[in-house]
Amino acid sequence: MYHPEALEPIIGFLRGIGMEIDYGEKAHGGFLPGVNIHGGVIHVDPDTLLGPGDLLHEAGHMIVVPRRFWSHLGTDLQEDIEILLRDETAPDGSPDPILTMAARQGEFMSQAWSYAVVQHLNLPMDCLFFPGSYKYDQYEGTHPMLAWLEQGTHIGPLALAQAGMTGFSGMFAHVGQNSLPSFPQMSRWTLD
């Protein structure tokens, strides 16, 4: 595992914001090795986890959904969010805006949120952006996803700001003003 020393601080942080984390066999069969979600509980197997950032990233997919829906989330987060979006559409046909954002921008929001957590915990960025993470095996210098976040060109912080979790930043600083500290500072870690 890349940066195993970052696993316990990340688990402590996730539990501190109200996420359930369990160890064991249920961690297998998920989208990423060593981490899986069942009924809103994140299961992790440190022996097969490639990096603690993968656990953080999967948690990031959950936090872009209001907490009351976490128990409905499982292995296929995108499908589960799409089902929630369908089920939570108002009688007039208008979709829930937060669930719509989670369905359309969840991947980018999760990446940006994970970056903010690593910054907050003062962990090495390599625990999140390691060779093979985010489907980047071959690159020179800085991991491409990390570069986009640091350059302010990644769209995830914009979506987090639109959800009221952080302030606008980077090339999107001019898009709006919500009076929150700019990304990567977070005013809240979850959507309640």
TrEMBL record:
Protein name according to UniProt: Uncharacterized protein
Domain of life: Bacteria
Gene source species: Azospirillum isscasi
Lineage of producing organism: Bacteria, Pseudomonadati, Pseudomonadota, Alphaproteobacteria, Rhodospirillales
